[in-house]
Amino acid sequence: MSTLASVFGDLLHAHGVPNKRVDQSWQEIVTAHGGAGRYYHTLHHLEDLYAQLSEVRPALQEPDAVLLAIIYHDFVYSVTRRDNEERSAGVMRDRMSKSGLPVPLLERTAKHILATAQHTASNDPDTDHFTDADLSILGSSPERYQLYAQQVRLEYRRFPDFLYKPGRRKVLAHFLAMPRIFKTSHFYARYEQQARFNLNAELGGTST
Q1: Of 62, 117, 137, 138, whose CA is between 20 and 30 Å from 51?
Q2: Percent helix, strand and coil across the chain, each rounded to 5?
């Protein structure tokens, strides 16, 4: 069992969810993230977010909401839709409410998930930590970043370059135009400089 599966199970068990339902819930998550066409938005991405956020767990106000956001934020992922975040939050609310988890916990989780649509600063420090972790790949080593960019391109493989590249340039320019890509001091110190280097390097490549 993976680390993420274990902590997810612990969370649900703490709310009295029986083993069978825990197993069914996790299997649904595994199936969703192992779907055809996923190259970056996989279980590996979720595990990486959990590892990143484990380092700042003492700073989180409600770690359980952040954990659920990690697990469900990419549950629905289609490159042809603009409502993936809303639909993912909806799945989370449906599944976890049926498991008996409290509404305030689910609403804060939904807030974190919806914030990944823009990754802008929030009035909730837990949201900022979560969205920063979601962007931490931008500040990875040049080699890892290049692999990430290739994986994202594969997810958009149905689009030819003349359609994909302008859209990708817009995304890259959006992040570079931010005064700060990372909102929290932890992630800013660790990833901001390298992220800007990686984004500028990719932006230069998409112009060809």
Answers
A1: 117
A2: 70, 0, 30
